[in-house]
Write a structure and sequence with these properties.
Helix content is 61%, strand content 0%. It is an all-alpha fold and 137 residues long. It has two domains: 62 residues; 64 residues, Orthogonal Bundle (434 Repressor (Amino-terminal Domain)).
Length: 137
Amino acid sequence: MEEMVLTIDEKRYGRLLAKAQPAVIRTDEENERILERIEDLMDKGEDRSPEEDRLLELLARLADDFESANYDFGASRPNEVLALLLEKRGMKQVELLPVLGCSKSALSDMLTGRREIARGTARKLAEFFRLPVDLFI
């Protein structure tokens, strides 16, 4: 599979880097700051510039590295992983509704384990949280 290479404006990307100040994440507070920046960039959707796409990829990798090292998801069930992610990020359940496109009761059932997380929903969660899909299956 051939990888698409984006042409970026180095000066613009440099300004974005200076503003975002990406660095290895060492604390939950730093992680929260990076996650907020990731959400801001994700909210732009199709309107993101190539430079913003590159920054988003970098920030997502930093957050993924931190969370993989600091949050033990190994023995957790998918609903427990989801609940822990919401708690650690200070998110409310309703914030996931636009991401998943499901009802409040369906999301509540997923979080309590009364309903399994479907593969399509797992993919949406993995993309949103920038984590492997198998954590949610």
